[in-house]
């Protein structure tokens, strides 16, 4: 399921785009699959111009994407980008001084084990040899801005900066990622698993591999038919369990992660060889995709006293 998670400020733009019956109907119709403007206008019994204006408003809000596809010549086809929208109505209760944020470049991984198809690219060119796992151990891997593999894992180790007189209350892991299909394919599910300190916290099924429309930070040299952007997901682990975008993944809690016993926090993303949906994984950095970040770890802590 493709989810859009919003702050209150971000929700204002989206709510304006949704405050129209025609635009809501367009999103509902696109649930069954991509359509061009003529088809949508006919199904809704609306003039072409009215339909086109409403599609443009949904595009501007980022709720649908449009790409050129072969038909009678080339035609523009619109697709719905999200299945649900989550608006956070409550602000974080921790003060900034009690939140440690670390943005890890995606090329700074400490371990990996990947199988083709696989590769790395910087913001200017390919790195190493495509579909050769040995490339993942080259020294220039630190310049990677897009990483992909069919199965296996990639691991990051973050410094454990929780003060000695404090206890960790919650950790959040944010990353932009998607499945790995040939070129791109919206319907290409993949079961992506996350481990923290070697403990499996759960698996999220990504619906597809997204392309055809350039990502906000994807460089111009990268062809639009290739993977362009992913979904920004947030994994949360606290005393109640493990969650992705607020949806429970498992009963694994902070206590089981033994955060106090190591000088680092290990975060591992992977696709198991025996996954039900073995659709690979793309991981986006600061200069690829729709979000200017790498792997963002937030540690929420409070005094032990």
Molecular structure report:
The mean pLDDT is 90. A hairpin with a 2-residue loop joins strand 11 and strand 12 (199-206). The protein is built from four helices and 20 strands. The strands form four sheets. Strands 6, 7, 8, 9, 10, 11, 12, 15, 16, 17, 18, 19 and 20 form a 13-stranded antiparallel β-sheet that branches. It has 305 residues and is mainly beta. Helix content is 14%, strand content 42%. The chain folds into two domains: 3-85, Winged helix-like DNA-binding domain superfamily/Winged helix DNA-binding domain (Arc Repressor Mutant, subunit A, Orthogonal Bundle); 92-303, Sandwich (Jelly Rolls), CATH 2.60.120.260. The chain has helices spanning 8-18, 21-30, 37-44, 48-60; strands spanning 3-6, 35-36, 64-71, 73-80, 84-87, 99-104, 111-121, 126-127, 146-159, 166-178, 190-196, 199-206, 210-211, 227-229, 231-238, 241-244, 247-250, 264-271, 281-284, 295-303. The relative contact order is 0.17. Helix 3 packs across helix 4 (48-60).
Helix content: 10-25%
CATH architecture of the largest domain: Sandwich
CATH superfamily of the largest domain: Galactose-binding domain-like
Number of strands: 20
Order of helices and strands: EHHEHHEEEEEEEEEEEEEEEEEE
Main sheet characteristics: 13 strands, antiparallel
Structural class: mainly beta
Overall structural domain count: 2
Supply the number of helical segments: 4
Shape: globular
Rg on CA atoms, Å: 21 Å
Give start-end ranges of low-pLDDT stretches. none
Strand residues, percent: 35-45%
- Termini, distance in Å? 42 Å
CATH fold field value of the largest domain: Jelly Rolls
Mean pLDDT level? 90
> Mind telling me the CATH class of the largest domain?
Mainly Beta
């Amino acid at each position: 399921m493709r989810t859009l998670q919003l702050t209150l400020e971000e929700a204002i733009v989206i709510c304006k785009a949704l405050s129209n019956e025609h635009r809501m109907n367009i999103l509902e119709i696109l649930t069954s699959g991509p359509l061009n403007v003529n088809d949508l206008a006919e199904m809704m019994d609306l003039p072409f111009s009215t339909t086109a204006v409403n599609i443009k408003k949904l595009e501007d809000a980022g709720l649908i994407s449009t790409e050129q596809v072969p038909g009678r010549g080339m035609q523009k086809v619109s697709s719905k980008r999200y299945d649900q929208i989550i608006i956070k109505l409550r602000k974080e209760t921790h003060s900034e001084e009690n939140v440690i944020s670390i943005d890890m470049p995606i090329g700074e991984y400490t371990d990996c084990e990947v199988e083709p198809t696989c590769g790395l690219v910087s913001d200017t060119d390919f790195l190493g040899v495509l579909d050769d796992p040995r490339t993942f151990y080259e020294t220039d891997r630190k310049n990677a801005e897009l990483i992909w593999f069919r199965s296996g894992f990639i691991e990051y180790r973050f410094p454990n900066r929780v003060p000695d007189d404090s206890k960790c209350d919650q950790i959040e892991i944010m990353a932009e990622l998607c499945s790995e299909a040939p070129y791109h394919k919206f319907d290409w599910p993949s079961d992506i698993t996350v481990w923290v300190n070697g403990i499996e916290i759960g698996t999220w099924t990504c619906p597809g591999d997204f392309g055809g429309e350039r990502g906000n930070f994807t460089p111009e040299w990268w062809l639009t038919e290739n993977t362009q952007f992913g979904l920004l997901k947030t994994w949360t682990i606290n005393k109640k369990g493990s969650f992705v975008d607020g949806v429970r993944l498992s009963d694994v809690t902070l206590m089981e992660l033994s955060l106090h016993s190591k000088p680092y926090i290990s975060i591992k993303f992977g696709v198991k060889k025996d996954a039900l949906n073995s659709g690979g994984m793309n991981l986006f950095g600061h200069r690829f995709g729709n979000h200017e970040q790498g792997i963002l770890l937030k540690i929420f802590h409070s005094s032990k006293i």
